Amino acid sequence: MERLPLFLDIESKLCIVIGGGEVAFRKANLLVQAGGRLQVIAPDLCASMESLCGESQAKIIRGEFVPSHLQGANLVFAATNSLEVNTAVSETAKRLGIPVNVVDQPELCSFIVPAIVDRSPIVVAISSGGASPILARSIKGLIDSLLPARIDRLAALLRRMRGSVKKLIPSISERTRFWEKVLESDIPELVYSGKEEQAKERIEQRALRAPSAVGEVYLVGAGPGDPELLTLKALRLMHQADVVLYDRLVSEPILAKLRPDAEKIFVGKARADHAVPQESINSMLLRFAKQGKRVLRLKGGDPFIFGRGGEEIETLAAAGISFQVVPGITAASGCATYAGIPLTHRDYSQSVRFLTGHIREGGVPLNWALLASEQQTLAFYMGLSGLEIICKQLTRHGMSEDMPIAIIEQGTTRHQKVCVSTLRDINERIQEFDIQPPTLIIVGRVVALRDRLNWYGEA
């Protein structure tokens, strides 16, 4: 983060604008809207600025800027056509410790004015750090179009009710959960449709009920790595969780989307290294939920595809703990797509098999005769250590040594590598590519379509 975003209280505080043109007027108008005490310094004022100063009873100093003009100021804007004047304003303000913004000259600024979506008391600020104001303005338009028209009315209602709810629910954690449940209910829609009194009654009724002492567990699939592949529901629950138990396959960009104050516990397992046994993970889920916490079990890919999610919800169900399960894009789908490989194609593959490539007792115990059919696609999870066994078993049971195979490392992330070869040569090729776990292995004629289609996903 290059700059710290802040919302500044300038109510009745002296705010100075140097410049009298249209650009200066836009900054002065923002200050007036935020309750600032406006003072404008310029030889001449445009009609809009004249009108604004009259309506807001702003002080006007007609003339050139001199450093003494900034005495007692709390905030300063420079919006003139003179680099010399703008520089002098910036240097004087910084020397006096006054926040200063020079329009379109970020190197002279101590703060930047963001693009603003104003639905007071809801205010959204968007900044590109001066890199691209047009991009910030474009994002502003997108956010503005997504926010409900009466979200200001909802915020005002919640503000009015904070005190009464606080008396009924003294616990901060329980009160936080209460407001989250309110926003997940139909209450916001009542406000948006103009039924504020009905919404107020619903909030009061909810606050009178005793909050549950038992928490809830969210079993969420984080997908193969790209945070943009998270579902909307996954993101919503990630923002609510008090405690997060996450695997080693959950990428750093996804972890960055968790609630900042959530307790994060790594429970990842690698081949032959189960740092936290599954039984301990199950016990932690129960313990935190019984403490009344919302527990997020965050898993790479999908919880129910080689993720042992079934075992975890069995434990929760037996203990009577409430839980939600959110599917994620599994590695076979996500990684294949980003590598430019269609998993099925009517001319080459009529089925897909998801398989574990884990070595157990020196082998990979699978029905190789069934897998050697050429009219299907095989997707092996966690199979890099067993690659040599996989290739030998497939060819031994009738699959051609020329069968295309792809090894995808850290699929869908910016570190993605794709190594394509044949069953005969793949073990040598991965040495050249220095392929490391985590990987997904795809075997089938569809792999050859990667170059023919000349399309790759956005890794």
Mean pLDDT: 92
Q: Write down the Rg.
A: 30 Å
CATH arch. level architecture of the largest domain: 2-Layer Sandwich
Kindly estimate the percentage of residues that lie in beta strands according to DSSP. 15-25%
- What number of domains? 4
**SS element count, helices:** 17
Amount of helix: 25-40%
Q: What is the CATH T-level topology of the largest domain?
A: Methyltransferase, Cobalt-precorrin-4 Transmethylase, Domain 2
The biggest sheet, with number of strands, parallel, antiparallel or mixed sense and barrel status, is: 5 strands, parallel
Q: How many strands in all?
A: 17
Low-confidence stretches: none
Query: How far apart are the first and last residues' alpha carbons, in Å?
Result: 23 Å
What structural class results from the helix and strand content? alpha/beta
CATH class of the largest domain equals Alpha Beta
CATH H-level superfamily of the largest domain: Tetrapyrrole methylase, C-terminal domain
Enumerate the strands of the largest sheet in spatial order, edge to edge or round the barrel: 3-2-1-4-5
Q: What is the general shape?
A: globular
Please provide a brief summary of the model.
The chain has 459 residues and is α/β, with parallel strands linked by helices.
Structural notes for this entry:
- The protein is of the alpha/beta class.
- It has four domains: 14-113, 3-Layer(aba) Sandwich (Rossmann fold); 151-208; 216-329, Tetrapyrrole methylase, N-terminal domain (Cobalt-precorrin-4 Transmethylase, domain 1, 3-Layer(aba) Sandwich); 332-453, Tetrapyrrole methylase, C-terminal domain (Methyltransferase, Cobalt-precorrin-4 Transmethylase, Domain 2, 2-Layer Sandwich).
- Helices cover 37% and strands 18% of the residues.
- It has 17 helices and 17 strands.
- A five-stranded parallel β-sheet has the order 3-2-1-4-5, sandwiched between helices. Strands 10-9-11-8-12 form a five-stranded parallel β-sheet, with helices on both faces.
- Strand 6 and strand 7 (122-126) form a beta hairpin.
- Helix 5 packs parallel to helix 8 and helix 11 (278-290) packs across helix 12.
- The longest helix has 18 residues, at 151-168.
- 33% of the residues are buried.
- The mean pLDDT is 92.
